[in-house]
Design brief:
- The protein is of the alpha+beta class and about 375 residues long.
- A 7-stranded antiparallel β-sheet has the order 13-19-18-17-16-15-14.
- The mean pLDDT is about 95.
- The radius of gyration is 22 Å and the shape is globular.
- A hairpin with a 5-residue loop joins strand 4 and strand 5.
Length: about 375
């Protein structure tokens, strides 16, 4: 009956707000993690700090000093004289922690008079494709058993040129991510750039999937953004939209004369109701760095238009959502993600289950 339908809908919305564990999330742009200053990051309902060690490797620890709760990201890094390793130093009382979260120095106390075990959480991170990836899950899970880091080879191909950026949304990660693989909206939200409201049909839709991702192939009608783009015009544009777990999209677009672009967008939960897109736009034309500002500006324009609408979506007001054939990329992604939720990989959001540190107790 109606009560049962409402209960199913409530569970569906809870599942959407959850975070998938034992997956990789883009915690930062690599270029934002420098050698001289820690970087504080709000992610997955908590706050972490990233910094580079003496070899340049990125280290990730909790941002909150266990002494009095000061933000470590407001501090600095220093070399531990006994080990030669770089530590992060709290700006409040000078406590220094190594990459394992162990206390290495307390300037006001006798050396060696402090606990030997880790006092703050430390987390696995890897750099790949211009992003710093955080493993959100069980540190004891062997690396060969972990899901792959979301990737597209063009990110590191010298024949392609990449520009990076970030934009925050006042919306949950679910709606932000699905917008990136939703092609039917472009003719309306982006009508003054590449959308074509006179020919809005999404054609020849087909999909495939594996353990970690879905891939949808289709064609759309676009229109050149301005006179300068008319040489790239084609009767219809072939598009491949990949959705990689937990929430990365790679949308491949091919225009005339072999012009290709890929929007590689990582939607990362900040909290249950805020998210950030850490993105890269990769192109195989106009490779000189002088063209980067145009590519970046276009990407920010498009994502800014998305943000105006996505921040206002209210699916929780609906008893159910209706999807049609052009929504296949979202439908396929929802089915894949739900399979992982049903296998026990969902972590309730911080609103549903408060936590101290990255994961709640028991997860």
């Amino acid at each position: 009956g109606r009560r049962e339908q409402s209960s199913r809908r409530d569970q569906e919305l809870r599942d959407r707000k959850s975070y998938l564990k034992n997956f990789w999330y883009a915690a930062a742009l690599s270029s934002n993690v420098t050698v001289d200053k820690p970087l504080g990051v709000d992610i997955l309902g908590t706050r972490l700090t990233l910094y580079r060690d003496e070899t340049g490797k990125v280290i990730c620890v909790d941002d909150t000093c266990p002494h009095r709760g000061a933000p470590l990201s407001e501090g600095w890094t220093a070399t531990d004289k006994s080990t030669g390793k770089k530590c992060i130093v709290c700006p409040y009382h000078g406590w220094a922690f190594d990459g394992e979260g162990k206390l290495r120095d307390v300037p006001s106390a006798e050396k060696g008079s402090w606990p030997k075990r880790p006092l703050i959480g430390s987390y696995d991170v890897e750099e790949c494709g211009g992003f710093v990836w955080l493993f959100y899950g069980n540190k004891s899970l062997p690396k060969e058993e972990r899901p792959p880091i979301p990737f597209t080879p063009e990110l590191e191909d010298p024949n392609w040129r990449a520009v990076y950026g970030e934009i925050e949304f006042n919306a949950g990660h679910w709606g932000v991510f699905e917008n990136a693989i939703d092609m039917a909206h472009i003719h309306y939200l982006h009508a003054d750039s590449f959308g074509n409201a006179e020919k809005p049909k999404v054609m020849d839709m087909a999909s495939e999937r594996d353990t970690w991702e879905t891939s949808c192939h289709f064609r759309i009608h676009n229109k050149p953004m301005n006179k300068m783009w008319e040489w790239t015009s084609v009767p219809s544009v072939p598009v491949t939209a990949k959705a990689m777990l937990p929430s990365t999209s790679a949308v491949h677009i091919e225009l005339a004369h072999g012009v290709k672009m890929i929007t590689f967008v990582n939607t990362v939960p900040i909290t249950e109701d805020r998210a950030i897109n850490r993105f890269c736009l990769v192109r195989n034309f106009a490779l000189h760095p002088a063209f980067d500002f145009m590519a970046r500006d276009n990407m920010y324009k498009i994502l800014g238009e998305d943000k105006v609408m996505v921040d206002r979506l209210a699916p929780e007001r609906l008893e159910r959502e209706y999807s049609l054939a052009p929504d296949l990329p979202q439908i396929a992604y929802r089915q894949l993600r739900q399979e992982w939720v049903d296998m026990g990989y969902a972590v309730p959001s911080e609103k549903m289950l408060p936590r101290r540190g990255l994961l709640p107790e028991g997860y």
